[in-house]
Amino acid sequence: MSGGRKRSFLRAMLITGGIGLFFFVLIFGAAALLSNREHFGGPKMALVKVDGIISDSEEVIEQIRHHLENPTVQAFVIRINSPGGGVAASQEIHEEIRKIRQDHGKPVVASMATVGASGGYYIATAADKIVANPGSITGSIGVIIQIPNFSGLLQKVGIRSVVIKSGPYKDLASATRELTPEERELLQRLIDDIHDQFIQAVVEGRGLSREKVEMVADGRILSGRQALELGLVDQLGNLQDAIATAAKMGDIPGEPQIVQVEERKFSLLRLLLGSRATAWPQKLLGTEESQLSVGYLWQW
């Protein structure tokens, strides 16, 4: 190949490579823009969903933190459709909602769907305002430990449990024997302490007197309309009403643009490896992930 032809070939290769690099950068840039498209445009409203039994806080907290990274999000709506669940998981979500308001200065409105009771209501108390449908089931301010006891059945079939333990309470709430009076008293003190935490959260979140909250903190459920009369919610309305309220609080003009994290799709891999994988056998048995290692269910 002569020198002239060689230079022409190299020039053609450079031009082709440059064009290829240009399109690569263009495609990569477009993909980056599309992945962050919700960061562009005017002020937006973040919609965070809390659905079903609260057995884990990870997914809800991920949603919240994702939206906090978006500078165009000016207000949050927490859509709650939950009868409650694990104590610690509910407390973790409650704390993250509180941070939205106090650390980031963004208004939060809780919107109750069919049910927002027990742990679901505990979460709602972290919001600036709570909106419920007239027939939403809410309240249920209380704590419960459910202890299965199979001692009678085991005796009938001739099975006896032998326990070697390091202390008198190490097999507390064992399913193979009855509770002792001392164990019952210990568990009651535990329940009373957690119940007190729940009451205090309602007092602080709702701005109510402790005496008023204690009057309804006996586990009773309420309709949205009853809760409004007691000061446990702020207004009656649906999700659209909650969005309108949050938009006004967040100074979002016109029809607010809603952003939300896409729900994770079910997959066998996620079932086996995901954060909620361990909850499936327990949910099938009618329990949940808040079940303690000694075999009892501790929940709101």
Q: What features would you highlight for this structure?
A:
alpha/beta; 300 residues; 11 helices; eight-stranded mixed β-sheet; 2-enoyl-CoA Hydratase, Chain A, domain 1
Task: Note the topology.
Elements: H1 3-35, E1 44-51, H2 58-68, E2 73-82, H3 87-102, E3 108-117, H4 119-124, E4 129-132, E5 137-139, E6 144-146, H5 151-156, H6 181-206, H7 210-216, E7 221-223, H8 224-230, E8 235-236, H9 239-249, E9 257-259, H10 268-273, H11 279-284, E10 297-299
Helix pairs in contact: 2-3
Q: What are the segments in which pLDDT stays under 50 over at least 5 consecutive residues? A: 28-35, 269-298
- Helix and strand content put the structural class at alpha/beta
CATH superfamily of one domain: 2-enoyl-CoA Hydratase, Chain A, domain 1
The number of helical runs is 11
What is the tally of beta strands?
10
Element string (H = helix, E = strand) = HEHEHEHEEEHHHEHEHEHHE
Annotated CATH topology of one domain? 2-enoyl-CoA Hydratase, Chain A, domain 1
Overall outline: flat
Which strand-content bin applies to the residues? 15-25%
User: How does CATH name the architecture of one domain?
Assistant: Alpha-Beta Complex
Radius of gyration: 27 Å
CATH class of one domain: Alpha Beta
Distance linking N and C termini: 82 Å
- Return the average pLDDT rounded to an integer: 83
Helix percent band: 40-55%
Major beta sheet summary: 8 strands, mixed
